[in-house]
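Exercise 3.2. Students should predict the tertiary structure of the chain below and write it as structure tokens, then compare their answer with the key that follows.

Predict this chain's 3D structure.
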Amino acid sequence: MKIRGPQELDTPQSLTKRLGMEFKDVFLLTRALTHRSYLNENPEAIEDNERLEFLGDAVLDFLVGAWLYNRFPEMAEGELTRLRSALVRTEQLAQFSINLGLGNAMRLGRGESESGGRQRLALLCATFEAFIGAYYLDAGIEAVRTFMEPMLENVALTILASGKTRDPKSTLQEYVQAKGNGAPRYRTISETGPDHAKIFEVEVLINGRRYGHGIGKSKQAAAKAAAREAIALLGID
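Answer key:
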């Protein structure tokens, strides 16, 4: 599979050729790459990728959980849960999307594209999930498993080597309180999207000062992303 960085825009056909994949139903892939902003500006487009995103999220949760269970037979349930969370968090799925160059293939409205949508982590994550949902419908679960497992192997080993499977909110709270401060406070600053595909933005405050900001498909995921940003800012090991 050939991977490249941001360059010229891909069509669905050129994307599959570049990745060495085959989609029997190219219209399914086209839908996976179609953001609702494109639909708003192109009436001939039939459907955006939000339903496929929903499906892909479920497929990824199952596949990652099954892969971890079999790959690490001696790992305790709590550690498996933390590692799965690290593998399917918004930032990691967005990185998979970046590695595959999906940003170059996304069908965006002009405004969304010009405002940096191809680099927006939440949008890249959603597109990756929709891509996985479409591939599952087109080729089946075993094809998706074969596609995902090499990526999961590389990232999981890196995460384990770094020791970064611990819940970031707990890590931040212990550090802050050890310094004599009160517990961090998380505040939701925005909530966008339809009910089945909401995106949340959360900030974390310490003594009233903002230390981190995160985006996620749930308030909890966004809060964890905010805690990670705060951890990086404070230089917590």
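Discussion points: Confidence is low (pLDDT under 50) at residues 1-6. The longest helix spans residues 50-71.
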